[in-house]
Amino acid sequence: MEDWVITAENLTKVYKMGEVEVHALRGVSLKIKRGEVVAIMGPSGSGKSTIMNILGCLDRPTSGEYILDGEVVQSLNDDQLADIRNRKVGFVFQSFNLLPRQTSLANVELPLRYAGMTSGRKERARASLEAVGLGDRMLHRPTELSGGQQQRVAIARALVNNPAIIMADEPTGNLDSKVGQEIMDLLLGLNRDKGTTLILVTHDPKIGAQAQRTIRLIDGLVEDGA
Amino acid sequence: MNLWQSILEALESLAANKMRSGLTILGIVIGVAAVIAMLAVGTGAQDTITGSISGIGTNLLFVFRSRDDSIRNPKPLTLGDADAIADPFQAPSVEAVAPILDGSATISYGGEMTRATLDGVTPAYFSVRNYTVVEGDYITEEHILGRASVALVGPELADTLFGRHDGITGETIRIEGQPFRVIGVLEAKGGGMMGSQDNVALVPFSTAQTRLLRRSPQDRVDVIFVQAVSADLVSQAANEIADILRTRHRTPIGADDFTVFSQEDFVQTAETITGVLTIFLGGIAGISLLVGGIGIMNIMLVSVTERTREIGLRKALGARKRDILIQFLTESSLLSMIGGLVGILVGWGIATLVEVIAANSGTPFATSIGLDAVLLATIFSAAVGLFFGIYPANRAANLEPVEALRYE
Q1: Which of B193, B223, B256 is at the close of a domain?
Q2: How distant is the Cα of B44 from the closest Cα of chain A, in angstroms?
């Protein structure tokens, strides 16, 4: 029996824009194995962002069933979702999204604080920063770091709670191709060494090609790869 | 998230916008300072006024003619009334009685001329009113019998006429043009309810009655000061006086043509007036605190909008509604509490300034900042921060993470 970290059955999502209903997802089913590297690709408007938000527990599906790491997610309330995001999902965003006035260390500590951890936070955050090769930039603020370094801080932050999945939304979109490849190598290396499930949301075929499997979405439906 | 961490983080984000935070705090500073200063001045005024009323004498009662126009055939107070009140058989609770004629007169010495309070008094007046002379003698029974042309002057009047208030016994002054020999100088009493009590000349009752403050009927008196035997007997003495006067004036029940007022009544009236004044001033000051609170709400709403992405990120990382709520409430409470603390200091400064100005203008006046006022201001300003912070914080806490992250 396979070890599925994500099982999604027939997910739909309908947005109401005034009188008009927009069907962003029209019944998406997919499964992702633990330790897998999966790319979710598709043109804009394909429902790529919507499925990422739902898989990342930022949003709830209108209907369908979603099980993340053994937890049934679609019926949870806001605070329970926050708790799932905190424990099971690590986010890496295109625009890094670091707190500008906080040091790298404080940024990486943030998920641990929301987890209610009171002691040993600094040690965990430090270890996580060392794992992404920023052991010497702990007390720098984002403005004092290059784009690649900022994205490494963001990856350290995503890793710090040992999440079940890392959800990377165009992680190289704001970086030049050389630095972008370094970030990809880092993410793939973490997947290899720690077995962290990696979900890449991208429209860049070069990034998609580095995944073990690609799920293609078009018009709110899975075209192939699920 | 522990409290200390929240406070540190809130301070950091307030420090990121120093100008904005400073101006918001200023709004609260002004409000709290105004409340503190107003309460301090109000309490000080109350203490000063009640103090000066107590300075008039001890266990004192005042008998006036009633000012009620609806009473038919009112009879004036007379010397006969005063004598009746002084009768220990009719009024056993009365210690001493001092009827006076109260008016004002032009008083001159050499080239100096001024207007001062002129009272015709009896020897009992000095003990009843706690008056002492700093030089010379009191008005005696002989002066009364002889309608002597003698006067005691208050220190302020002495200063005006002579440029000094000692060594003037034996000089001759003119009251309404008539010569009077100064037999002594009264001790300084300071400002009272109705202007200075030191710009005064006292003459024998009979002299005033016949030559300076003529009244009709001739034996009429303006005020009768009555001293009760003890503090416990003040209200009983008031009843005895009222009974005597009702009998003598033959007034119908419930239509007294006189008023008996005790010192305690004066104190209570003064306290009521200053109390109302304090509440009124404090209330106006409170409005400025309210405006300061609205300032906080305004700035927090701006802050929430500006930091929408940050809020979205925090939620993505696992912040619950409560975490975001606490974060923003901590910021708004810190704004108001810093404002409150600074405001207390500024208010104390203003109160001290009022004191200095009062002292320099010759009316010593001690303001007092009670612990209650400080507590009130602290609690109130913290409450303002919480109250006006709730709406913006709630707005932040209820943002949808997806929308907030997408916000530009």
Answers
A1: B256
A2: 48
d(CA B172, CA B104): 19
Q: What is the pLDDT of residue B17?
A: 87
Q: Which residues on A lie below 8 Å from B13 (Cβ)?
A: 101
Section B73-84 average pLDDT? 87
Q: Report the DSSP pairing between strands B195-196 and B191-192.
A: antiparallel
Please indicate, yes or no, if residue B62 is contained in any of the structural domains: no
A111 at B interface, C-beta within 8 A: yes
- Strand A213-218 relative to strand A221-224: parallel, antiparallel, unpaired? antiparallel
Which of chain A's residues have a Cβ under 8 Å away from the Cβ of B12? 101-102
Tally of domains within chain B: 2
Residue A86: its chain B contacts at CB < 8 A? 317-318
The string over B65-85, giving b where at least 16 C-beta atoms fall within 10 Å of a residue's C-beta and e elsewhere, is beeeeebeebbbbbbebbebb
Which CATH number does A4-224 carry?
3.40.50.300
Residue-number span of the structural domain to which B93 is assigned:
67-256
**What ipTM is given for this predicted complex?**
0.93
Smallest Cα distance from A92 to chain B, Å: 10
Q: Would you say how long chain B is, in residues?
A: 408
A32-90: pLDDT as tens digits: 999 999 999 988 888 898 999 999 999 999 999 999 999 999 889 999 999 999 999 99
- Interchain proximity B316–A91, CB inside 8 Å: yes
